[in-house]
UniProtKB/TrEMBL annotation:
Entry keywords, A to Z: Nucleus, Ribosome biogenesis, rRNA processing
Extent of Basic and acidic residues compositional bias: 583-611
Designated gene of the protein: NOP7
Stated name of the protein: Pescadillo homolog
Originating organism: Lentinula boryana
Annotated family: Belongs to the pescadillo family.
Length: 619
């Protein structure tokens, strides 16, 4: 007879534990438990059967792995948290009794925990840590932009600003920046460090307010972990390129709002170490005293002497050792491989033909000047990361390497409308004509394109072209440039469309049935749709009515299955899915339909703009 299994002692009931049971086992508060889970990377789990995991109860609760909770029980940080709890009680008792000396002694011996061992546990190698700093950088730059707040200590904001500046200095020094994007949320950057792609978001320099419903304690716990992680990563990156970490701060530059320029990059001082003089050791070889100096001189003479194959005596006799072994001389054999064949190997050709698409010195020949309304931290980082030189007015901060009257300035980044210059000297006019005035988007688009774009479309006061995201988008995303290429109509196509318009106009009946027929025919072809639109306009039909008929025809065409076999097969596959798979499938289809709807809206908007532009040209 087998052993009787007691209820709740095996299976899911033993593998999972509820949050309340975990807190009771660890003997800590809910806030400390959350902090431990964040620091150690432990998160809730979803069992297959919540009722079995909760020992028959169906009450809503949060589950964790029992092994993870047992792992937390031996955490040194938990011990420090318990010590801090006892310390807080002793300190409040001493303050209540007026024992100031004991309270001071307790404050000096306050328990403090470190997170170094957690970083080493979670990231065994440096590449693992480097691959996981995207969120850390976003959090650091977010807190660096926050104003002073009672909920956040000022020292924390200052430390985040320092870490953000150190990261930007390294990216500018190593020229690792690859892409950038100006979005509504902020500025996205993407860099390649040690073959790892790192993307982070920097908010704009506006006054940031912390919402009341945001739990700052959870964010501060993440920030505590991220600060320690970035300290390790930055130290490794700086020392690998021979720089001192942390970079020293120039207080005078910092007081003049120099920003990143307040930090000084110093080369690591490599002390010239004298070679250690080896102790003279005498060894007796074949009855002769040989010292270490003699061996060193012999090796030096052998290294300085040159041996040629012609000087070798090929016919020299074979030398026998005392042990009886025969030492044969090394005979140089000619290579049997063909040199031309080896040079034409595909591996060698592929290495030679590697594309050099990344131009890290894109702005090296140019000198930029920032207008006062542009964001200095953003464009200073962008231009310097690609080898350019940049200056700014004193209203944007101190530390500018050049003045506005510098003749080496080639581009002026300006973001305001054109204003006529009434009082302008001849020198100012010549200086203005030498320079190119561009809007800020030109810098970002040139970086993403990997080449210097034409300045005319980005000139001051011009309507800017679409600013597209350079990052990997989903398949089938809306692309205005590609849409323009697809819809580019030549003069011959225009004449063909006009001919079709005349045929449709001749056969255009003024009744709803004919309108529905034309709309149905126009759904199948984009050229026919364009021709039907022109015909409807010429016949005086309301555009809204025509669009409604086209939309109705499209819905009807979608309802009719194009391939009944495929539809039936899809239904059969869906029937074979589990409930979880069906829900996931429905979510995927919903997201696809949402993307397609957004794309169709953008395409419709594009067509409307093209139509308005075409009308303005004809008039």
């Amino acid at each position: 007879m087998g052993r009787l299994r007691q209820k709740g002692q095996a299976g899911a009931a033993k593998a999972y534990v509820t949050r309340s049971a975990a807190i009771k086992k660890l003997q800590c508060s809910l806030a400390d438990f959350r902090r431990l889970c964040i620091l150690k990377g432990i998160f809730p789990r979803e069992p297959k059967s919540r009722k079995r995991a909760n020992k028959g109860s169906s009450a809503p609760t949060t589950f964790y792995y029992s092994k993870d909770i047992a792992y937390l029980a031996h955490e040194p940080v938990l011990k420090k948290l318990r010590e801090h709890k006892a310390f807080a009680k002793k300190l409040s008792r001493a303050l209540g009794r007026g024992e100031w000396s004991s309270a001071k002694s307790l404050e000096e011996n306050k328990p403090v925990y470190r997170l170094d061992h957690i970083i080493k546990e979670r990231y065994p190698t440096f590449i693992d840590a480097l691959r996981d700093i995207d969120d850390a950088l976003c959090m650091i730059f977010l807190f660096a932009s926050l104003p002073s707040n009672p909920r956040i200590p000022p020292s924390l904001i200052e430390n985040c600003s320092r870490l953000a500046a150190e990261w930007q200095l390294y990216i500018m020094r190593s020229q690792s920046l690859r892409k950038s994007f100006l979005s509504i949320k902020g500025v996205y950057y993407q860099a390649e460090v040690m073959d790892q792609t790192i993307t982070w978001l920097v908010p704009y320099q506006f006054t940031q307010n912390i919402p009341v419903d945001v739990d700052v304690r959870v964010m501060l716990t993440f920030l505590e972990l991220y600060q320690t992680l970035l300290g390790f990563v930055f130290f490794k990156l700086y020392t690998d390129v021979g720089l001192v970490y942390p970079p020293p701060l120039d207080t005078k530059r910092d007081e003049s709002a120099a920003g990143v320029g307040a930090y000084i990059l110093q080369e690591a001082s490599q002390k010239a170490e004298k070679p250690a003089v080896p102790k003279v050791k005498v060894v007796e070889v074949e009855g002769r005293q040989v010292s270490g100096k003699d061996v060193y001189k012999t090796i030096k003479n052998l290294a300085s002497s040159t041996f040629k194959a012609d000087d070798m005596d090929v016919d020299s006799p074979v030398v026998e050792n005392k042990s009886g072994d025969v030492d044969e001389e090394f005979v140089v054999q000619p290579s049997k491989s063909d040199a031309e064949l080896a040079s034409s190997l595909p591996t060698l050709l592929s290495l030679k033909a590697l594309p050099q698409s990344i131009n890290t010195s894109l702005f090296a020949p140019y000198t930029f000047w920032l207008s006062r309304e542009t964001s200095r931290p953003v464009f200073e980082f962008l231009v310097r990361s690609f080898g350019g030189k940049i200056g700014w007015p004193t209203s944007s901060g101190g530390g500018s390497p050049i003045d506005e009257s510098d003749e080496s300035i080639t581009h002026v980044i300006i973001d305001r409308p054109v204003v006529e210059q009434h009082s302008e000297s001849e020198e100012q006019r010549e200086l203005r004509l030498k320079r190119k005035y561009v809007q800020p988007q030109w810098v970002v688009d040139s970086i993403n394109a990997g080449k210097i774009l034409l300045e005319a479309p980005y000139a001051q006061g011009e309507t800017l072209p679409p600013h597209l995201s350079p990052f990997g988008e989903y398949e089938g995303a809306y692309d205005p440039a590609a849409l323009t290429n697809e819809q580019a109509v030549t003069a011959e196509d225009e004449s063909e469309i006009e001919g079709e318009d005349e045929e449709i106009e001749d056969a255009e009946p003024q009744n709803p049935e004919a309108l529905q027929t034309v709309a149905t025919a126009a759904v199948e072809d984009s050229v026919a749709l364009r021709a039907a639109e022109l015909a409807a306009e010429a016949a005086g039909i309301d555009p809204n009515t025509f669009e409604k008929e086209v939309a109705k025809s499209r819905r009807k065409s979608k309802k009719v299955p194009s391939n009944g076999v495929d539809e039936a097969e899809a239904d059969m596959n869906k029937m074979m899915m589990s409930n979880k798979q069906k829900k996931l499938y429905e979510k995927v289809k919903h997201s696809q339909n949402k993307r397609n709807l957004e794309r169709s809206k953008l395409e419709e908007k594009k067509r409307t703009l093209e139509k308005q532009k075409r009308k303005s040209h004809t008039t």
